[in-house]
Amino acid sequence: MMIRVLVADDHALVRHGLRQVLGAASDLSLVAEAKNAWEVIERIRHGGIDVLLLDMSMPGPSGVELIQRIRIEAPRVPVLVLSMHADAQIAARAIKAGASGYLTKDSEPEQLIEAIRQVGRGGKFIDPLLATRMVFETGHTATETAAHASLSNREYQVFLAIVHGRSLVDIAKELLLSPKTVSTHKIRLMQKLGVDSVSELVRYALRQGLAQ
Fold it and tell me: DSSP characters for 14-52?
């Protein structure tokens, strides 16, 4: 059975590389590409997709919010997240939101192909090393794990955007929120993480592998 794949990533080079990888598998067909959340939603509505290969960070609603919207628009289309983030909390949030699998972008092409096949057949797939971290939180202190695990999904989304250098105005536009609301989220998440500045926030993110 041919598995029809929609690749969603805002980086042209990444989409090109994925096109090459999928082209090497006779049972996988890349039928569409999307570079932002709106294109993902529009293409999903058209149907004809068996697996959505999704980046967690794109313009527009992204991450957990985008996964949840996709589950509403196309509940039968499995979502396989392909992310630069190897953080257990991000993976856990994605799975809880409805993703069928989670892989990091440093995975081998063979592993990606197998993951697409598995979720395309109705199964689940998580990078084995990441699955272990999700259970044992290897490499994180208990205090730090509890700290960023306490953030709401929206706070977590704002947190990642800030540490990747986006301004509050840009974040507000992407999330369709007011700058004041984003600023409130920023204040709350910094309080929860026990930091007093953006530089401290970035250092925290670096320790957790979230600002790569």
Answer: HHHHHHHHHHT-TTEEEEEEESSHHHHHHHHHH---SEE
**What pairing do the DSSP bridges indicate for beta strands 28-34 and 79-83?**
unpaired
Which spans in 7-163 are helix H? 12-23, 37-46, 63-73, 88-97, 109-120, 128-136, 142-149, 153-163
Q: What digits encode the pLDDT tens for the residues 131-160?
A: 777 766 544 444 445 578 788 888 888 888
Structure-token pair, residue 88: 């257990």
Angle between helices 168-175 and 153-163 (to 10 degrees): 140
For the entire predicted model, the pTM comes to: 0.71
Q: Each residue of 121-151: b (16+ CB within 10 Å) or e?
A: eeeebbbeebeebbeebeebeeebeebbeeb
DSSP state of 99: -
CA dist 63 and 156 (Å) reads: 9
Q: In a 10 Å sphere around its CB, with 0-12 CB exposed, 13-18 middle and 19+ buried, how is residue 84 labelled?
A: middle
Of the candidates 31, 30, 100, 39, the residue with the CA atom closest to the CA atom of residue 67? 100
